[in-house]
C-alpha cells in the first residue's frame, strides 16, 4: 500500500480553510474514488488529472485509488484541487518523492495536456500559507497576486512537468519574484475639475475627513456624480492590511487579474440591482457590491429608483461594517466597511424649486417619490446637502476651491488626529468614544438638545451630529467642539432638505 499527502486550500467567502488531499493506492481492480464532500467540478477532476498525468509522460497507476479531501464536512468546489490531486497520485505511486511535498501548498486547475490554469481566491490562500510558513505553488498567472503576501515563498509554473522536475530534484524552480505590475494604478479624477459647487466640495471634504456617509440632492446636471467620483481621491491611502483585505475580496470575486492595487474601490451599481447583487448571495455565497466596496466608496445614483426592499438591506451593514449571509448548510461572513455616497433628484421630474418653474409634479407625486426612502435609512446618512444648479459656462474657468491633492492633505491631517486620539475615524466612534471625545459644555449641550427636540431628531441622529461636529473641529485642528461646529453639523441633517416627511 502507498499513501501520499498534499496540502491545499478551499474557498469559503474570503477565507481559505486548509484541505488535505490524501492519495491511497491499494491492490484490486483499477478504479478511482473521490471522497470528502466534493461538488460536481471537483468530481470531474479525476478525469482531468488522469489525462494530464498521461499526457505529461507519466504512468497513471492501474490500481485501486482512493482520494480523500479532508475535512470531509467542508464543501469543495471548482478545479483548484486538480494540481494537488495529480501530485498526490504521482507521489503515492512512487513517481515523485513524497517528502518533497511536506511543506508546500498547491492550487491550480489542470488542462488535459497538463498545463496549469489560474483559479480564483489565491490571495486568501497565500495569506494562510504564509502564516504556516509553507511554500505556495500556483499557476504562473496567479503568481503576481500571491506575491502580495510579503514574506511568502511562491513557486510558479506553466505546466505539470515543470513542477514534477522541481520536486524530483532535476530542474529546481526559482522562487517567483514580484514584477510590481499591480502597483501601476491610474490617478484619481481631480476635484479641481468640478466647477463651482463650493458647498458640495466642503461636504465632500468633511465626509472624507470623518468617513461619513453623504447624500446629494439636486436637479439633473448639477455635478452630483462628478462630485461623488472625486471622493476616493480624497481618502487616505490604504494601509497594508486594508489593501490586502481589498485585494482578497477582489481575488475571490473575479477571475480577472487585479488592476489598480492598492487603490480604494469605487463601486456604482445600477438602480436595477437586486438585493443579492448588493449584499451578495447565491447557493455558494459570493460577495456583493457592498463587500466589493469594502474600504472604499459605494455610490448609489438615482437613490429613490432603487427598490425599497433593496435599500433596506443596507441598514445593518452601515452600522456593523459586515454582512452575514446564511444558507441551509453554511453561514458566510463578508466585510462591508464602505462609505456610502448617494444622489437623488428632489422630485420625479428633477426640477422642484427650479427658479424657472419647470417642475410640474403634484404634491402627491413628490410625496410618493420621497416615501421610497425610509426614515431609518436616511438617519444613517450623516451629511445631506442640496446641490443647486450653477450658471452655465461652456468654457472651463479657473479652478475654484482646493484640488484633490490639497483636500487630501487636509483630510490626512484630520484623520491623523483621529487615529492618535481614538484609533478610528469619527464615524466609527461608539458610545464610550462619544462621551470621551465629543464632550460639550453644559450650554452647548443644552443648545443641541433643544435643536434636536425642535427638529424631531432621533438619538442616533444626535450622535451623528456630534460625530460630524467632531470632524469639523478636527479639520480646524481644534481641541474641542465649538458652537459653530454644531451649527454646521445641524445644517447637514435630512430635515433641512425636507426629506423626512
Describe the protein's architecture and organization.
The chain has 20 helices and 18 strands. The C terminus is likely disordered. It has two domains: 178 residues, Ribosomal Protein S5, domain 2, CATH 3.30.230; 226 residues, P-loop containing nucleotide triphosphate hydrolases (Rossmann fold, 3-Layer(aba) Sandwich), CATH 3.40.50.300. The strands form six sheets. Strands 11-14-17-10-18 form a five-stranded parallel beta sheet. The protein has a four-stranded mixed beta sheet with strand order 1-2-4-3. It has 501 residues and is of the alpha/beta class. Helices cover 38% and strands 16% of the residues. The longest helix has 19 residues. Keywords: ATP-binding, Nucleotide-binding. Belongs to the Mg-chelatase subunits D/I family. ComM subfamily. GO terms for molecular function: ATP binding; DNA binding. This is Magnesium chelatase family protein. InterPro entries: AAA+_ATPase, CHLI-like, MCM_dom, Mg_chelat-rel, Mg_chelat-rel_C, Mg_chelatse_chII-like_cat_dom, P-loop_NTPase, Ribosomal_Su5_D2-typ_SF.
Q: Label the CATH architecture of the largest domain.
A: 3-Layer(aba) Sandwich
Number of strands: 18
Counting DSSP H or I runs of 4 or more residues, the number of helices is 20
CATH hierarchy, class of the largest domain? Alpha Beta
Mean pLDDT: 90
Q: Tell me, briefly, the overall form.
A: elongated
The CATH superfamily of the largest domain turns out to be: P-loop containing nucleotide triphosphate hydrolases
Q: What is the chains' assembly state? A: single chain
Helical residue percent band: 25-40%
Low-confidence stretches: 496-501
End-to-end C-alpha gap: 77 Å
* CATH fold-level label of the largest domain: Rossmann fold
Amino acid at each position: 500500500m502507498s499513501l501520499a499527502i498534499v496540502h491545499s486550500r478551499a474557498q469559503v467567502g474570503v477565507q481559505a480553510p486548509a484541505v488535505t488531499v490524501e492519495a491511497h493506492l491499494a491492490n484490486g481492480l483499477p478504479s478511482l474514488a473521490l471522497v470528502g464532500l466534493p461538488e460536481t467540478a471537483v468530481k470531474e477532476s479525476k478525469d482531468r488529472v488522469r489525462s494530464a498525468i498521461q499526457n505529461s509522460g507519466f504512468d497513471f497507476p492501474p490500481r485501486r485509488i482512493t482520494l480523500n479531501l479532508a475535512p470531509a464536512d467542508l464543501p469543495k468546489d471548482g478545479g483548484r484541487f486538480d494540481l494537488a490531486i495529480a501530485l498526490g497520485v504521482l507521489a503515492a505511486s512512487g513517481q515523485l518523492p513524497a517528502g518533497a511535498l511536506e511543506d508546500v501548498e498547491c492550487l491550480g486547475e489542470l488542462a488535459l495536456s497538463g498545463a496549469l490554469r489560474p483559479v480564483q481566491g489565491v490571495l486568501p490562500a497565500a495569506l494562510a500559507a504564509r502564516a504556516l510558513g509553507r511554500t505556495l505553488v500556483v499557476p504562473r498567472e496567479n503568481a503576481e497576486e500571491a506575491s502580495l503576501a510579503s514574506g511568502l515563498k511562491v513557486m510558479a509554473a506553466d505546466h505539470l512537468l515543470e513542477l514534477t522536475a522541481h520536486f524530483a530534484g532535476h530542474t529546481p524552480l526559482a522562487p517567483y519574484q514580484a514584477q510590481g505590475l499591480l502597483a501601476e494604478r491610474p490617478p484619481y479624477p481631480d476635484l479641481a475639475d468640478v466647477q463651482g459647487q463650493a458647498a458640495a466640495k466642503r461636504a465632500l471634504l468633511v465626509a472624507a475627513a470623518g468617513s461619513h456617509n453623504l447624500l446629494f440632492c439636486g436637479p439633473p446636471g448639477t455635478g452630483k456624480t462628478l462630485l461623488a467620483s472625486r471622493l476616493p481621491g480624497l481618502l487616505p491611502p490604504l494601509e497594508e492590511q486594508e489593501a490586502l483585505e481589498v485585494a482578497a475580496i477582489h481575488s475571490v470575486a473575479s477571475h480577472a487579474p487585479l488592476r489598480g492595487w492598492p487603490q480604494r474601490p469605487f463601486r456604482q451599481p445600477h438602480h436595477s440591482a437586486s438585493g443579492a447583487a448588493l449584499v451578495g448571495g447565491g447557493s455558494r455565497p459570493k460577495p456583493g457590491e457592498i463587500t466589493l466596496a469594502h474600504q472604499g466608496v459605494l455610490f448609489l445614483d438615482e437613490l429613490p429608483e432603487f427598490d425599497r426592499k433593496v435599500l433596506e438591506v443596507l441598514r445593518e451593514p452601515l452600522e456593523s461594517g459586515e454582512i452575514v449571509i446564511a444558507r441551509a448548510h453554511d453561514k458566510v461572513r463578508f466585510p462591508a466597511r464602505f462609505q456610502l455616497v448617494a444622489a437623488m433628484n428632489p422630485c420625479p421630474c428633477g426640477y422642484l424649486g427650479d427658479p424657472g418653474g419647470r417642475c410640474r409634479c403634484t404634491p402627491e407625486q413628490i410625496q410618493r417619490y420621497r416615501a421610497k426612502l425610509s426614515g431609518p435609512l436616511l438617519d444613517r446618512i450623516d451629511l445631506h446637502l442640496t446641490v443647486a444648479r450653477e450658471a452655465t459656462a461652456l468654457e472651463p474657468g479657473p479652478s475654484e476651491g482646493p484640488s484633490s491633492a490639497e483636500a487630501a492633505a487636509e483630510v490626512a491631517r484630520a484623520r491623523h488626529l483621529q487615529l492618535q486620539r481614538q484609533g478610528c475615524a469619527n464615524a466609527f466612534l461608539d458610545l464610550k468614544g462619544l462621551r470621551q471625545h465629543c464632550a460639550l459644555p453644559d450650554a452647548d449641550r443644552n443648545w443641541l438638545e433643544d435643536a434636536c427636540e425642535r427638529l424631531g431628531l432621533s438619538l442616533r441622529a444626535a450622535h451623528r451630529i456630534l460625530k460630524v461636529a467632531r470632524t469639523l473641529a478636527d479639520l480646524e485642528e481644534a481641541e474641542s467642539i465649538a458652537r459653530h461646529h454644531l451649527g454646521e453639523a445641524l445644517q447637514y441633517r435630512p430635515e433641512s432638505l425636507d426629506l423626512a416627511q
